[in-house]
Amino acid sequence: TMVTKLEKDSLVSKLYNSDVALERHRHRYEFNNKYKKDLESVGLRFSGIYEEKNLVEVIEIPSLKFFVASQFHPEFTSRPNKPTPLFKGFIKAIIENNK
To answer: What S-S linkages are listed for this chain?
Structure first.
């Protein structure tokens, strides 16, 4: 489990109702930070960072109704009666979008 710092007012920080996420990680791949500014300039938001190693953990596309991608694995801690905030938020977005 690693501590991911969440950007203030990001969707993921609202879902977790926190400025950090504690989730299980298993890194085999890393985002190459040399592309960060280019991707930010076209609307990608880097909303979660593992600060100890400056690793991108969460990205969002704010212009879409719900787009969150994570390097951590919320499926490992999610349970049927207690889904992780990302899954709960995703399901809520699906329900809201289908009204």
So the answer is: none
* 36 contacts: CB under 8 Å, gap ≥ 6: 46, 56
Q: Which of 27, 51, 73, 96 is catalytic?
A: 73
Residue 82 exposed, middle or buried by CB count within 10 Å (0-12, 13-18, 19+): exposed
CATH architecture of 2-97: 3-Layer(aba) Sandwich (3.40)
28 marked as binding residue? yes
Alpha-carbon dihedral angle through residues 23, 27, 29, 31, given to the nearest 10 degrees: 40
Could you list the pLDDT tens digit for every one of the 99 residues in the chain? 789 999 999 999 999 999 999 998 877 889 999 999 999 999 999 999 999 999 999 999 999 999 999 999 888 888 989 999 999 999 999 999 998
Any catalytic annotation for residue 25?
A: no
